[in-house]
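Risk register update: the risk of archive-format incompatibility is retired. Evidence:
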Amino acid sequence: MTARGAAALQDELKTLKGEVRPRIIAAIAEAREHGDLKENAEYHAAREQQSFAEGRIREIESKLADSQVIDITGIENKGKVIFGTTIKIINIDTEEEKVYQIVGDDEADVKKGKLSVNSPIARGLIGKEVGDEVAVDTPAGTVVYDIDEVLHL
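Archived output:
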């Protein structure tokens, strides 16, 4: 996991524990005051929210405990594609430029330019250097990319 990804999870965990959990507890207490819990929709909705929030808290804590955080800003940039680097690639056929950061599975979001380290494109690019042409097998067929730039952001 990248350092940014770990920080984002820490922020979400802080919000869940410090804001969301207390708000849900208060909603449950208020709903209990309304009487019969069997037919109390507010109570059941609050309990459902509590279940979701507690599940997410456990999930984040587990991810943070089991992950290895890699901060590439301290690694010398030798133009080689490694985990955490941001790369600019050019499709040889269409000349379309794309910029991606190679991140862990939990951080991946192609719309935001974050590729999972396990994606076909990332697997094809890792270990390559600026100027290399890389053939990547994708669901749409083989695509050849030129690695234009490698950044350590």
